[in-house]
């Protein structure tokens, strides 16, 4: 299992009020799986996504990413884990506006200490892979939404991670470019990446082999071949 | 490191106006520090040089009240008495007055020194005081209505040059110019007319008053002891020490040094205030920078930047602001110091104030601006790395 959650509880504190976002999640996602996390807003899917992405630690329970319990890691070890194992694709694209497409894609490789020439070469290859070979030196503001999300996908691939996490990747896109983005992500899954997509779009959600439905911080249902 | 630099340059140039305003704060601070310290040290250097020209074997006796004529209580007899003090070789009495001087159809106020020609030459002989004749001759004992003029009087005071053989009308009386001194670089000396002590006192009705007595001591005599003896002798004659100073060159330098320290503290204080303003400017920009870039910090962290890397990114920004601001500030401060030199030479006279920007000063200013930049960036950088990536991304 590349992702394994045991009795995961996450409680947010807003002043004195405790808001339980996840209330005991048990979930296993095998290597190379294509999983979707679905549920209405407030169901805890983004919180779950942040835990799987090692952006946050659980209040209790264990979150194993490729065998490592993230609750035991300090900030820098978490950063290292994200750098090596996880590529993020966000609804808001989250590109850095002052950098070109090429520089945005190269960014995670900078943090990994890869030499400038090597990371520029790989960033170029990745942008060509996502079909943006002609947009290398454009800044995000000069690209369409679909193109920006492709840049983000290329960036997610920069350090060749195990897992691609996409949080509402089509949320800000029209249907056509949304579909193109989903298809691109599915291509990556076919190449062996574990793909986890958070979405409230039922149509897109259904495309995943493994479909996890969340409600009120708990797993309501898991559908799919691996959990028959 | 190069990557951090290029990332910072991209960031700072992305916010051109804000970066420029921050830089301006640092530039003004460092510029103020460099130019003020250069003025301060220039003042000290030129004062010291001028005072050293006085010579270390002389004792100066001056009235304690104003430097003017009316206030002096010193007389020829005091000078004679001082000359008889053991250890004093001879004295040179001096009467100085600012008088109206006519040349052709122009009239100007010029400083006039009445001196005893022989004693003055003996006192200032050996060239220690910087007097050298350019043209003509030195005054002689019997000379009446003859003057030797400083270089500035000859070349600058009147619209036409004054030469040996010309006539100057001092207080309505004609004087022949018999000599012109070379430029000494000391405005006081260059812009003065020198004539016979008795003649000038007669014209200005000053009787036997003198405004300064310069005593040259015997070779090998202990100047501090001679100074004490001179002071005691005068005290006896005048009844108290209230109306005169007896000073050696060393004491004058010390007194001026005290005054200079006050100047230094004032200039230093002004410079420090400007620097603090610059530092606050950087801190302010950096805090805005962090607040505005919260989301970017989230992105950096999500894509695998460690806390140390995020910290480096923000500190590099601050260091660049400090160093670039400091560099420009030093350059501008240097230009200001050059401009002050030019202006001082023109309006105050050559050699009155020569500012200097030393290598140490440049090094200090650059180090200081770098330290200020980093220090001002430290807190915002710390805040940046404490941000939880999830919250940062939500911003």
Helix content of chain B: 55-70%
Shape of chain B: elongated
State the order of secondary-structure elements of chain A, H for helix, E for strand. EEEHEEHEHHHEHEHEE
Helix content of chain A: 25-40%
**Strand-pairing-aware structural class of chain A:** alpha/beta
Overall mean pLDDT of chain A: 91
Q: Which architecture of chain A does the CATH hierarchy give at level 2?
A: 3-Layer(aba) Sandwich
Our measurement of the CA-to-CA distance between the termini of chain B, rounded to an integer number of angstroms, reads: 29 Å
The pair of chains with the biggest contact is: A-B, 28 and 23 residues
Q: How many whole angstroms does the radius of gyration of chain A measure?
A: 17 Å
Helix count of chain B equals 13
CATH overall fold name of chain A: Rossmann fold
By oligomeric state, this entry counts as heterodimer
Strand content of chain A: 25-35%
On the 0 to 100 scale, the average pLDDT of chain B is 83
Termini gap of chain A: 17 Å
Summarize this, please?
Chain A is α/β, with parallel strands linked by helices.
How does this model look, in words?
- The complex is a heterodimer of chains A (228) and B (395).
- Chain A is of the alpha/beta class.
- Chain A has one domain (33-46, 75-227): P-loop containing nucleotide triphosphate hydrolases (Rossmann fold, 3-Layer(aba) Sandwich), CATH 3.40.50.300.
- In chain A, 34% of the residues lie in helices and 29% in strands.
- Chain A is built from 7 helices and 10 strands.
- In chain A, the strands form 2 sheets. Chain A has a 6-stranded mixed beta sheet, with helices on both faces. A 4-stranded antiparallel beta sheet of chain A has the order 2-1-4-5.
- In chain A, strand 7, helix 6 and strand 8 (194-198) form a beta-alpha-beta unit.
- Chain A is globular, with a radius of gyration of 17 Å.
- By secondary structure, chain B is α+β, with helices and mostly antiparallel strands.
- Chain B folds into 2 domains: 2-51 and 255-394, no CATH class; 65-242, no CATH class.
- Chain B contains 13 helices and 10 strands.
- Chain B has a 6-stranded mixed barrel, surrounded by 4 helices.
- In chain B, helix 1 crosses helix 11 (307-347) and helix 2 packs antiparallel against helix 12 (359-386).
- The longest helix of chain B has 44 residues, at 249-292.
- The mean pLDDT of chain B is 83.
- The interface between A and B is medium-sized, with 28 and 23 residues.
